[in-house]
Amino acid sequence: MNPEVKADEAAFLMQTYKRADVEFVRGEGALLFDDEGNEYIDFLGGISVTSVGHCHPEVVAAVRDQAGRLMHTSNLFYTAPMVALARRLSTGSLGGKVFFCNSGTEANECAIKIARKSARARGVEHPEIVSFEGDFHGRSYGSLSATPGLAANPDFGPMLPGFRSVGFDDADALREAVNPNTAAVLIEPIQGESGVFPVSDQTLLAARAACDEVGALLIFDEVQTGIGRTGSLWAYEQGPVRPDVITTAKALGGGVAIGACIGNPATGEVLTAGDHGSTFAAGPVASSAALAVLDLVDDPDMLRRIRSLGTRLSGQIAKLGGVVEIRGRGLMIGVRLEEGINSSDVSAQLLKRGLVVNAPRSDSLRLLPPFVLTDEQAEKAVALIEETLAGYHPVESK
Ligand SMILES: *Cc1c(COP(=O)(O)O)cnc(C)c1O
């Protein structure tokens, strides 16, 4: 890659990321191209963002058209794309009102505010929010405090009070942790950043029951699972319970930054004038992009394709040498590798061979392929994974 870009990155960007040695310059559908003209199949999608593929013509047209007419007015005025998007998100999920923002982190901040205000309204003085160990909810102090793995870093303390966590998918511990001070249980229905771990139906039912018992809210962070990723518009639709609030971002804008916190008819009324805000949120360009994304994804044929492609890919990858477990749903796939095979190493090799994946933990790969992946691209990707894993001479074949 261009050494100047690399040197300037090191000189001028705060070094908060470990980047792979690739400079991407173009994307089209499931493909990415680097500055040397090499082609890659993108099984990461900018971390579950470009789910409809790179530069989808419908999204590009919506952005171009809107960018040429009006880009920003602030939320002190009405704009039609924002209102149309709110209607669409509400009617397509919990049926309550929507708050817009610019990221997943901010969507969760809004949910936390709704939870705390609701708890205070029923007389709770020290509201608590319960999450699972391994959950990821974001990087600002509220969402960070709800992210146990990162909140434990003493460099950034103190965290906000009023957050606690229990073991992942531990229904008993969750029941025990929920008490009259509980404002909300805030969880990812399928943990994404920690490596694709679905919460069991039985725990989801326990969470719903525990929340109902004390009047707490059940909040699903669908920032990664939402917008079709699991084969339904929202992951909760395939589970046994309905949450009171969901948060979304990542794939919502097809590559343009936008997030939303969506309530049910009751929780959507909690925040009122002055309670919350955002300068950029749901600007005309981001809203138009999101409407184009929903036109593509909120479609029975598309959702069926996600499920069938997910089943096929998972089945094929499960059979490969070096793979010991497949987790997830739809096109959100965690692949646990045989002991002794380091996932970061595999991910680096795959990148060299032209497949972009990610390694959220040392024993697992995470695959988040785009919904527009062709059968041929899917086959090629499986072959690349097979070839790469074959190079490891696993200790024992299965
Ligand atoms: C990515 C992610 C977030 C944070 O979203 P940002 O847009 O990076 O702020 C929150 N929750 C989950 C489940 C995520 O995957």
Characterize this entry briefly.
This protein is α/β, with parallel strands linked by helices and 398 residues long. 36% of the residues lie in helices and 18% in strands. The strands form four sheets. The chain has a seven-stranded mixed beta sheet, sandwiched between helices. A four-stranded mixed beta sheet has the order 1-2-3-15. The protein has a four-stranded antiparallel beta sheet with strand order 13-14-17-16, with helices on one face.
Notes on the protein architecture:
The protein is an alpha/beta fold and 398 residues long. The protein contains 13 helices and 17 strands. A seven-stranded mixed β-sheet has the order 4-12-11-10-7-5-6, sandwiched between helices. A four-stranded mixed β-sheet has the order 1-2-3-15. A four-stranded antiparallel β-sheet has the order 13-14-17-16, with helices on one face. A hairpin with a 4-residue loop joins β2 and β3. α3 runs antiparallel to α10, α8 runs parallel beside α9 and α12 packs across α13. The longest helix is centred in the last third of the chain and has 19 residues. The two termini are 39 Å apart. The mean pLDDT is 97. Bound molecules: pyridoxal-5'-phosphate. Pyridoxal-5'-phosphate (PLP) binds next to α5.
What is the tally of beta strands?
A: 17
Intertermini distance:
39 Å
Average of the residue pLDDT scores: 97
What is the CATH homologous superfamily assignment of the largest domain? Answer: Type I PLP-dependent aspartate aminotransferase-like (Major domain)
**Ligand list:** pyridoxal-5'-phosphate
